[in-house]
Amino acid sequence: MLLLKTYIGCYIDKIFCTSASFIGYHKISGTYCIKMPSHYLLGCSLLAVAATSSSAGDIDCGFKSSYPKQYVSSKTSEKLVMDGKLDEESWQHASFTDDFVDISTQTTPKFLTKAKILWDDEFLYIGAILQENQIWANISKTCHCVDPSEDQVIFHDNDFEIFVDPDGSTQYYKEFEMNAYNATWDLVLNKPYSDGGYENSSRVFGVEGFDMQPPLVCGVSIDGGTINDPATSPTTQGWTVEVAIPLISLAVNETVTVPPKDGTFWRINFSRVEWHVEVSDNQYYKYPCCQSCPIPGEPHEDNWVWSPMGEINMHAPDKWGLLQFSESESGSEPVFYVEWPIRHIAMTIYNAEHAFFNTYGSFTANVSALNDFASPPILENSVCSQQPLIESDGATFLAHVTDVSGLLTASIRNDRLLTMEYLAP
């Protein structure tokens, strides 16, 4: 290993990798380096673990096969108008995400969806193109108040949805939905629904509830057609959305500072809900009949996402994509998310614990017994991490797992709370 002033260089598989920023990633070798003060004598074991396979069973300890989608967002100094047109110069230079895929299957969605992301010191900006020729909506407005007579659940229409978990804890993540009428719904989940979470929003709690509007601003532009007018369907290309989400709202109950620094990672995902419609008397009628779902033709909606979830459930923040912030207006290269391997192991513990609970009716502190429920079985005698330390009273559990270098510890709780700690060497 070669020590260079303020950062570490490591030879892994005879390829030298350095970083003048927080993390550097060598695309060919799949290795990364961590910037550290020059007096830290950091070994390369953490780097080697993420780049190579286990000698026992050829387990990929970098878990690259399950690495989520990643987007590098450039910072903009341009004033963006939220009109849904995406015609500012900053949008023109920003790259699109990969095309959206079905949330749980390998079937290609019948309509194209893709997004872009920008940011500045106040807002996270999202723009998206949704291809389709039948543009409709029933919810024309939402009061952002408690009103049982008003449908404010935007995904009852075709919609575009944004999910953001700034600190990656899987808790207090934010959700925003909008339809072609530019009607909106935003909320915060204290934890995923399956872990006992609940919606905090103005729809549920009125003025005491969470609401990002204002200062959140959004807009919709329809390309070549008119909403709720089947006669314009032959000329309709789709609709475009544009959203400015205040960073200070996204940071509520999160352990992050805003604006983010260059190289910061957040978790993010997008979803598009698409309902089949039929036309009668020149009106659209919702007739659920999914296209890319597990059983095509069933009376359900389609769910198309950026980073695939593997199940019909958006409320698993640990599976969302990665948002990498770049302070450069011209963008930066994507770098490997250094926390990914140990986070993956922590979630393996979480999933194994819940599988154990479903079988025996309690959680366990026995790592050996738990390893039988882990996929792959990496919890015991593994080179991917040190042996997990688990506390459990049967009804709850708290697990800590440290990478083999001893520099990074992930803690996971039975309600999916996931926290990280960087340890001094």
Could you name the key traits of this structure?
425 residues; 6 helices; 4-stranded antiparallel β-sheet; globular; single chain; 31% strand; 13-stranded mixed β-sheet; mainly beta
Account of the 3D structure:
The protein is mostly beta strands and 425 residues long. It has helices at residues 45-51, 89-93, 202-205, 247-250, 340-360, 367-371, and strands at 2-4, 7-12, 15-17, 23-26, 31-34, 70-75, 101-102, 113-119, 123-131, 159-165, 173-178, 184-189, 199-200, 217-223, 238-246, 265-274, 277-280, 283-286, 302-305, 321-326, 389-392, 397-402, 408-413, 418-422. The strands form five sheets. Strands 6, 7, 8, 9, 10, 11, 12, 13, 14, 15, 16, 19 and 20 form a 13-stranded mixed β-sheet that branches. It has a four-stranded antiparallel β-sheet with strand order 21-22-23-24, covered by helices on one side. Strand 2 and strand 3 form a beta hairpin. The longest helix is centred in the C-terminal third of the chain and has 21 residues, at 340-360. The two termini are 16 Å apart.
